[in-house]
User: Which sequence fits this backbone?
């Protein structure tokens, strides 16, 4: 016998209340887990209640930020339901669906591996695929396996749905070939391109196996490619960025080309990787009917998502949190840091939980070397602090200038101690280390807890506050 | 004149998934700190192994990349075997380890031929063996070491009768999750599933390889002066703890 939806959702929501009151969490995944256990079909039925349907964003890097940007673009047009706290597995999406009353459009960021299951339940009218990088191979096995699963998702997408892909990622461009209703986005600014980096993933054509010719690469393997074997090549995107000016750690500006018009955009988030996030959000907004002016004001008003180039005031000092989680993402963080001058002190916190990746070998594929020029002290933190210290030692950084402080909270204190008055401390944590820091900062009253923020974000996007 | 150690890195563009450059960086730094120079020569598809090669390195790759280099590697059986007979040392990790055996049979029964240099073959199995791992090695009689790393393989590697493993599994899966053995050792050649990368937290193994490489020209492996490995030992201790807590469990 199927449990009535009204009953299963009631029980599941209560679980969230218990979770929040017990202080164990923000209730961002537990209600969904309860709901899925009571009624595996409930997510699909809840999703069908959204009058305007749902949109999904997935990517290895940038999905939280691009979802936040897309929410800002679409919030004036639709009342949104979403998972802004970054709970992006099936349980997190199910939890978000529990709080859809009054919402018209679902906007979800979804974990790469969870995408097939979520897409099947939610049946999105728009699916935005941002990038696929080497990340957490310990969880997914191999990147190819993931690309193959995404191929299945695209094949199962309704003909009326819009597929949005980053045309600069050849793996995603391949997925979209031969399909009608595709919007492609990319970067067209050779002045920001370079050679393919060491950790690049898509070196070989997924159709014929021959090595791509890369005219230039922007971020990881994202760039302008063509295959000398079968002739597969990047198409001119429908939506693109050019005349990009990067402004160190504070932001960037660029010219955004939409199919009908061209506008200038000033982003408050740094780095080329955030321009890709902005393009993903712009393309998704465009697909869902947003006006050009809404796209620009949405992008320009977006602030850093939790821990992603987020600035926090601590007395007279400032703290800048830059999440790192895989070689490509970390390389971009390093590039962005170095662009505004190498810091003297740096805290890097490497944990090895499931959410961080239990296999820490990825740090050896990160090009930390550009930091070594001006760096005076590295505070190596997290459960695998010693491993991180070894990475720097074998890069030639003097061991005497490395401090091992495994507790992220203590490493934060040590980093602040080493930071001059009025100075800014840069901390690069992996995911669970960032959660630890977030919790410490909240305890000390410097920042809100992430579910409080999520609740605010939900309110701002027009849905009712979860009870 | 500084003594040069020549390392041939096979397929650096294809087999590099588990931070293989970390292993090379460790070999280089530990050679240089003893006054030796490590010369690294990348050897790609269709290129020949350099003469006077002291050490061969093969890393891991994903299925697609492995398929790209497998035919070339299979043609190298004689080239690699004669280098080993000449006293060249070898380290092969994960995919490189599998393909130095006779071959890899996937789930559909299709066989990818390997070099056949190591006495083993690999068959795809149900579920990947992923996790922290610790093994115990005795490369020289009476000299036992703990080696820690991370394994991530769908293939089950079966050693031929009489073949020697690299080590005995303490925590984790190992070759096929059943025999209690990990990797394969044939003279101065070592194949293993352990990455992480392997050498930073197992510095004695890096030194063993360097000594064997130096031994090719000298006739015997020299004793290398010890280095300060305090940080390496700390990293080893944490990895060993992880292997004890969470190694050898299917996800």
Assistant:
């Amino acid at each position: 016998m199927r449990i009535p939806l009204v009953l299963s959702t009631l029980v599941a929501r209560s679980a969230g209340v218990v979770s929040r009151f017990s202080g164990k969490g923000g209730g961002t995944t537990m209600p969904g887990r309860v709901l899925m256990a009571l009624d595996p079909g409930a997510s699909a039925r809840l999703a069908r209640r959204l009058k305007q349907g749902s949109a999904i964003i997935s990517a290895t890097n940038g999905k939280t930020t691009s979802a936040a940007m897309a929410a800002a673009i679409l919030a004036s047009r639709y009342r949104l339901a979403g998972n802004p706290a970054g709970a992006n597995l099936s349980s997190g999406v199910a939890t978000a669906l529990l709080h859809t009353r009054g919402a018209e459009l679902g906007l979800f960021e979804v974990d790469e591996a969870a995408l097939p299951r979520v897409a099947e339940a939610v049946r999105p009218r728009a699916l935005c695929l941002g990038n696929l990088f080497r990340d957490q191979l310990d969880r997914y096995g191999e990147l190819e396996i993931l690309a193959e699963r995404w191929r299945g998702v695209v094949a199962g997408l309704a003909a009326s749905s819009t597929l949005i892909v980053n045309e600069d990622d050849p793996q995603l461009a391949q997925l979209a070939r031969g399909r009608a209703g595709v919007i492609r986005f990319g970067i067209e600014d050779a002045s920001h391109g370079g050679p393919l980096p060491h950790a690049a993933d898509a070196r070989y054509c997924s159709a014929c196996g021959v090595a791509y010719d890369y005219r230039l690469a922007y971020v990881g393997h994202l760039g302008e490619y063509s295959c000398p074997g079968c002739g597969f090549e990047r198409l001119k995107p429908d939506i693109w960025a050019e005349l990009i000016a990067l402004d160190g750690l504070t932001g960037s500006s660029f010219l955004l080309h939409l199919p009908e018009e061209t506008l200038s955009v000033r982003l408050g988030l740094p780095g080329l990787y955030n321009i890709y996030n902005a393009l993903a959000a712009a393309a998704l907004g465009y697909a869902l009917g947003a006006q050009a002016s809404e796209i620009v004001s949405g992008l320009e008003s977006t602030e850093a998502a939790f821990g992603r180039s987020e600035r926090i005031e601590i007395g007279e000092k400032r703290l800048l949190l830059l999440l790192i989680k895989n070689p490509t993402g970390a390389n971009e963080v390093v590039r962005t840091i170095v662009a505004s001058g190498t810091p003297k002190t740096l805290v890097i916190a490497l944990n090895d939980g499931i959410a961080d990746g239990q296999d820490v070998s990825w740090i050896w594929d990160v090009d930390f070397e550009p930091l070594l020029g001006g760096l005076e002290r590295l505070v190596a933190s997290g459960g695998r602090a010693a491993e991180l210290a070894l990475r720097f030692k074998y890069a030639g950084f003097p061991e005497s200038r490395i401090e091992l402080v495994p507790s992220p909270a203590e490493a934060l204190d040590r980093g602040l101690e080493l930071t001059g008055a009025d100075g800014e401390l840069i901390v690069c944590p992996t995911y669970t280390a960032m959660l630890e820091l977030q919790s410490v900062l909240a305890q000390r009253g410097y920042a809100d807890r992430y579910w409080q923020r999520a609740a605010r974000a939900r309110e701002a996007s027009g849905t009712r506050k979860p009870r | 004149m500084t003594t040069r150690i020549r390392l041939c890195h096979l397929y650096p563009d294809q087999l590099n998934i588990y931070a293989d450059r970390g292993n090379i960086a460790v070999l280089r730094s530990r050679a240089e700190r003893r006054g030796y120079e490590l010369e690294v020569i990348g050897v790609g598809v269709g290129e020949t192994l350099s003469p006077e090669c002291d050490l061969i390195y093969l890393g891991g790759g994903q299925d697609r990349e492995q398929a790209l280099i497998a035919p070339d590697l299979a043609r190298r059986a004689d080239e690699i075997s004669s280098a080993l007979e000449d006293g060249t040392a070898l380290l092969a990790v994960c995919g490189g380890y599998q393909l130095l055996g006779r071959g890899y049979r996937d789930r559909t029964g299709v066989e990818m031929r390997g070099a056949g240099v190591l006495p083993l073959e690999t068959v795809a199995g149900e579920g990947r063996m992923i996790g922290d791992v610790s093994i115990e090695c005795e490369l020289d009689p009476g000299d036992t070491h703990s080696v820690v790393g991370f394994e991530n393989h769908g293939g089950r590697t079966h050693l031929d009768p009489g073949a020697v493993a690299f080590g005995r599994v303490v925590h984790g899966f190992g070759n096929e999750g059943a025999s209690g053995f990990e990797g394969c050792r044939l003279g101065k050649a070592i194949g293993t599933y352990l990455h992480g990368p392997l050498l930073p937290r197992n510095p004695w193994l890096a030194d063993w390889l360097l000594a064997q490489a130096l031994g090719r020209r000298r006739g015997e492996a020299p004793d290398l002066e010890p280095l300060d490995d305090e940080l390496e030992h700390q990293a080893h201790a944490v990895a060993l703890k992880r292997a004890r807590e969470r190694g050898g469990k299917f996800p």
The interface with chain B takes residues 134, 137-139, 141-144, 198, 203-204, 206, 209, 211, 352, 358-365, 383-384, 386-387, 389-391, 393-396, 399, 402, 404 of chain A (CB under 8 Å). The longest helix of chain A spans residues 5-21. The CA atoms of residues 17 and 406 of chain A lie 33 Å apart. Residues 28-305 of chain A form a domain with the UDP-N-acetylmuramoyl-L-alanine:D-glutamate ligase fold (CATH 3.40.1190.10).
